[in-house]
Amino acid sequence: ARAMGADRGILIQTDEDVEPLAVAKLLAKVAEEEQPGLIILGKQAIDDDSNQTGQMLGQLLGWAQGTFASKVEIAGERVKVTREIDGGLETVDLKLPAIVTTDLRLNEPRYATLPNIMKAKTKPVAKKTVADYGVDVTPRLKTLKVVEPAKRQAGIKVGSVDELVEKLKGMGVA
Q1: Cα–Cα distance, 24 to 136 (Å, whole number)
Q2: Is residue 161 part of a domain?
Q3: Tens digits of per-residue pLDDT, 124-164?
Q4: Which of 43, 111, 131, 169 is buried most deeply by CB count within 10 Å?
C-alpha cells in the first residue's frame, strides 16, 4: 500500500487467530484515532471467506455502508456506491464517513513500480499490539471437526421425458 501511495501504515501484531468481529473492533479503534472519511475494505477475507468484517465495522462505528462496490464516486460529503444485484445494478448514496466493501469489478489492479517500492521502505509503519487498543481477540468460535462431503453417486441417462418424469416421481421429486 505504501508503494502505491499510502503515506504511512499501521501494523497490529498478534499471534492469535483473529475472527472477523475482533478485526472489526480493532479497525473501529483505529478509525476513532485516525478519523478517516472513508474506509475501503475487501469483500471477503482469504482465511475464512466470511464477508463479515465490513458490515460489523459499519455497525460498530454507526457509519453508512455500501457493500460489494463495483463503482465508487465521491462528491463533497457524499459517496455513491454502485453494486451488482440479481436484477442489474443498484446505486446507493451514502453520507460520509462511510464504509465501502469492494467487488472485483471495482477497478483494474495497479501494480507497484520498483522506484515506489524502494521509496515505500522509508515510509513509517507504526507497530501496535492488540493490547494497545484494549480489544479482546479471544476466539468465540471453536471448530469441532471438518469432514469431506460424501461422494456423489453416478447419474443415470434416460431416453425420454416420460422416463425422466417417472424416475423423478420414484425419487419423490415430481
Answers
A1: 11
A2: no
A3: 999 999 999 999 999 888 889 999 999 988 888 999 999 99
A4: 43
